[in-house]
Design goal:
Elements (H helix, E strand, L loop, with lengths): L7 E2 L22 E6 L5 E4 H5 L4 E8 L4 E12 H7 L9 E6 L6 E5 H7 L2 E6 L2 E2 L9 E3 L12 E7 L6 H6 L20 H10 L93
Parallel strand pairs: 1-5, 2-11
Antiparallel strand pairs: 2-3, 4-5, 5-8, 6-7, 6-11, 8-9, 8-10
């Protein structure tokens, strides 16, 4: 078994659900996928027309940025290269491709076009021989081999070729790394914590609403810390004293809290996906409403 760094296998037979669970609410229009932008011919493909096209079957490993992996999943669909060929191919200025979901916020992701073609991106309809469940992106999603799975957008609605990159939701809003290579552990962009902002926050022990992604506070005494709505993805709190800390609605995905003292800490409604709590003191800790996919204790 060969896993990328710091990934763990999902439970046998399980495919964890991360992110949105349903496509755009109230949209009953027939499903279509539009190919547009820097392409020779803009085309709109109905679902039945897509399903009638020649398809390929590929087997790939799923690696989620929240640290779980599911190995050997077989997907069937149309190669992105083949779909673009039906549109006359990319125009010379096309350098990037954006995949947009039929979701309430139209979340998207992007790739260098040459990379997407080299990786063999697949417009997929089935997984392990069965139609994709809606919760896993059915009826049609992108599968991007060799990248964290946020590069494989659910509920595909639009494919746009671009001359300049357009960061997707996860990369632009959440701070996920645009490269997304699991073997290089490209989970998040580098921390851009302003030292003066951090100094003031530590002095007042108030991180509320601040973007402190990747901050390193190992071993610190942060008793009574207030971090409501803070962005603390990939932060390091190993061995820290977080007694009575308030992380309500904070994003602590992939954060490190190993051996921390979390006595009576509040993580209510927080994002703890992929966070590590091994050895932490969780006496009286409140995890009500928190998202715990891939969290380890």
């Amino acid at each position: 078994m060969n896993l990328p760094p710091n990934q763990k296998l999902a439970a046998p037979g399980k495919w964890p659900v991360v992110g949105e669970k349903v496509p755009r609410a109230g949209d009953t229009a027939p499903w279509t996928v539009t190919v547009h932008g820097a392409v020779t011919e803009r085309r709109v493909f109905g679902l039945e027309a897509l399903l009638a096209l020649p398809q390929q079957t590929q087997t790939h490993d799923i690696h989620c940025v929240t640290r779980w992996s599911k190995l050997g999943v077989t997907f069937t669909g149309i190669l992105l290269a083949d779909l673009l060929a039906l549109c006359g191919g990319p125009l010379p200025e096309a350098q990037f491709v954006s995949f947009v979901a039929r979701s309430d916020r139209e979340h998207s992701t992007s790739l260098v076009l040459a990379e997407a073609l080299e990786l063999g991106c697949l417009v997929a309809f089935t997984a392990d021989g069965a139609p994709l469940d809606e919760i896993h992106g059915g009826p049609v999603r992108i599968v991007t081999p060799g990248r964290y799975f946020y590069k494989s957008v659910k509920w595909l609605e639009r494919i746009e070729l671009l001359a300049e990159d357009k960061l997707g939701y996860w990369e632009g809003e959440i701070g996920y790394h645009n490269g997304a290579d699991p073997w290089r552990e490209e989970r998040y962009i580098a921390s851009t914590v302003n030292p003066k902002v951090l100094e003031r926050a530590l002095a007042t022990r108030d991180f509320s609403g601040l973007d402190l992604r990747g901050v390193d506070l190992r071993g610190r005494d942060l008793t009574g810390l207030r971090a409501v709505d803070a962005k603390l993805r990939d932060a390091h709190f190993e061995g820290a004293n977080l007694t009575d800390a308030d992380f309500t609605r904070a994003n602590l995905s992939n954060a490190h809290l190993e051996n921390a003292n979390c006595t009576r800490a509040l993580f209510t409604d927080g994002d703890l996906e992929g966070a590590a709590f091994e050895g932490a003191n969780l006496t009286g800790t409140d995890l009500a409403g928190a998202s715990l996919f891939g969290t380890t204790f």
